[in-house]
Amino acid sequence: MEQIATSELTHLAREQAVLDLADFDEVVRLYRPRVFRFLLASLRDRDVAENLTQDCFLKAYMGRAHFRGDSSLSTWLMKIAMNLVRDHLRSKRLRFWTKTRETALDPVDVSDWVPDGRSSPEAEFIARTQVKSIWETVNQLPPKQRSVFVLRFVEEMELKEIAEMTGMNPSTVKTHLYRALAAVRASVGGGKA
Amino acid sequence: MTKETTTRQVQEMYPESDAATKRDLEGLANSISQFRAAVRHIAEQQAEPASVAWQLDQARQRRRSAQRRTMLQWAVATVAATVLCVTMLVPAVGSYRHHAAQLQAQRQEQLLKQREADTALLDQVTSELSVTVPDSMQPLEELDSDYTNNQTSIGKTEKTNGRN
Prior knowledge:
The complex is a heterodimer of chains A (about 190) and B (about 160).
Chain A: H1 2-10, H2 14-22, H3 24-43, H4 46-62, H5 73-94, H6 107-112, H7 121-140, H8 143-153, H9 159-166, H10 170-187
Helix pairs in contact in A: 3-4, 3-5, 4-5, 5-9, 7-10, 8-10, 9-10
Chain B: H1 3-13, H2 19-44, H3 52-129, H4 138-163
Helix pairs in contact in B: 1-2
């Protein structure tokens, strides 16, 4: 349903997109999962992701008059989410004395669930290890590489769309993605970083 | 997104790869697909979100408390900076005053010494002037005193004549 809504909104005229914001409940219902998923994958903290998702929609709500429809609603919201991640990481660096949050996701939890039933326990173990390894590697990537990786491979966005969202040119996006992919590839034992 | 799509996207990043690398990339794409599925699964595990109004209200409250916290931090920082400045300035002012008093005392002492030295010099000059004229110079002194007496008497005579 989310994908259908996204594609529908992408094709809407600018005026229509602006009007859509008037029905804000619907906007939140449609885009909340994507925003939350991006924040969760970027920050690995449920509570922070939840709070920042709310902040994202509050910002969007308060700034809806400034939305001119130059980009799609989804791109605009994800851009706000990216800025929130950047601000959060910056403030986290400043609050270096703050102890690690207890709500931060344990990488083991992430690998607890692996899609499709595997034939052997060994194959399942390998799959879980790889997911855990990717999760940890993504967490250690520089912020830009991590955002580009998550947007491309978790949020399934096109390079052009990522470029528009991040304000980088497509070749820079590709470079970041290549580096992130190289790191992930090395972490799962498939090549040199 | 299917696993095949992920494979294609991964292989796009490595266009000049041989057969072995392609197999390796397929494995990587498979792992990434599983990673995506895991992240989506965790995200969907979240409890049903509350109403939009409640969420926006929560976000507003957080924003207000963050603003208050920032203001409080600035206030604390300002007070701390002021206290620091005062703590640094008080000894500096004390030290300056002490130094000024020392300088004043030194100046007075120097003045006193100067006065004493002047007095001593004047005493010395007076004593030297009052030394008895040596014998060899006695005739000159007598001549000088005679000359002075004469001058005095001439003056008196002129005055008398003038009156008359």
